[in-house]
Amino acid sequence: MYFLLILGGNFVNLKRAQYMKTIAECGSITAAAKKLFISQPSLSQMLRQLEKEIGTPVFDRSISPLRLTYAGEKYLNAVDRILAINSELESQLREIREEHSGRLRLGISVTRALQVMPLVLPAFTAKYPDVTLELTESGSATLEELLQNGSIDLALAALESTSTSLAYELIEKEAIGILAGRHSNTARRFVSGTQLSLEQIQGDSFVYLAKGHSSRIIQDKLFRRYGYTPPVLLETDSLEVGRRVAIEVGACMILSNIYVDDYVHQRQAEFFPLKDFENNRHFYACYRKDEFIPRYVRDFIQITTQALGRQREQDLNYKI
Q: Residue 233: what are its φ and ψ, rounded to 5°?
């Protein structure tokens, strides 16, 4: 398939455009040839032919790794647009041809995956048995980056709906507070559910989530606002590890209310909503605005929203 590229008035082969993009990403012809499973001489010849057609070098070969020239940057920018248009066209045609098959590259945090996937997958796979699900588990900030650079199709994450290039669909609102183990000073001093500010927390160490998690982003902002630097008991990339350590050791942790479950209550830990703090990071399904969204992706969002809604109702009825 060919598209007309404004640069030089040439027609650009999509395969060749992808090859040039791979060279730019790898920084060398040899590495790109290996990744593309073609010979290095063939790829070099293709590059020379391209540069002959457009009349100027695409890469500066005097340095390593290879660097795009100004013309190369313009070429690759145009290539990215062409590949995006082609990808959208292919998605639309595939949706028309095969409404119930495809691939969903989903990004979600490990902890949220524990909540969401057992609830959602039975209904989703029953409806779309021919959709392949590829899971990427990471922190919310990383997932947003992966979504923007096209590495995943859909992110379920706690985010602020601020990016102009992404569409956000609210799945669940979250409230942020302080989880305190029952042996902590905070749990002994205050009645569970009391709204607290960080100024009222004294003598307790904190468990930190690693950078990239939405709770860590909120925590860092709060600590900077109050000039608060509590002792750090542990920093972990796992919310579940952090939560259990805080509860068992008698430490504190900045956490969303959605993780206050039966385990928290059974261990007699306490949760204190943050006072004078409005949380703007909620659980969203988000995807790129400029891309076609297949029906099975939209249904995955709907099934997730309904399943979590039913789960929260059950939790509420159980507590009552």
A: -75, -45
Separation between Cα atoms, residue 156 and residue 168, nearest integer Å? 10
Radius of gyration of the chain, Cα coordinates, nearest whole angstrom: 25
- Structure-derived torsion over alpha carbons of residues 43, 49, 55, 60, reported in degrees to the nearest 10: 20
Section 242-249 average pLDDT: 96
Q: What are phi and psi of 220, to 5 degrees?
A: -60, -40
Q: Are 207 and 305 in contact (CB under 8 A)?
A: no
The amino acid that residue 95 corresponds to is: E
What's the confidence (pLDDT) of residue 277? 85
Regarding predicted confidence, which is higher, 72 or 204? Answer: 204
- pTM reported for the whole predicted model: 0.62
266: Cα within 13 Å, side-chain hemisphere = 4
Rounded CA separation 57/292 (Å)? 34
Packed helices 239-249 and 110-127: angle between N→C axes, nearest 10 degrees: 130
Beta strands in the chain (DSSP E): 2-4, 11-13, 59-60, 67-68, 101-108, 130-137, 154-159, 166-172, 176-180, 206-209, 232-236, 252-256, 270-273, 282-288
Do 284 and 166 meet the contact criterion of CB atoms below 8 Å apart? Answer: no
Averaged pLDDT, 200-215: 90
Q: Are 234 and 245 in contact (CB under 8 A)?
A: yes
Asked if 85 contacts 79 with a C-beta cutoff of 8 angstroms, the reply is no
* 268 φ/ψ angles, rounded to the nearest 5 degrees: 60, 30
Select from 159, 124, 129, 127 the least CA-distant residue to 145: 159
State the chain's mean pLDDT as an integer.
87
Distance CA 108, CA 154 (A): 9
- The DSSP line for 38-60 is S-HHHHHHHHHHHHHHHTS-SEE
Strands 282-288, 154-159: pairing kind: antiparallel
The predicted structure's pLDDT at residue 317: 62
Q: Which residues pair with 170 in a beta bridge?
A: 284
Contact at 8 Å (CB) between 295 and 95? yes
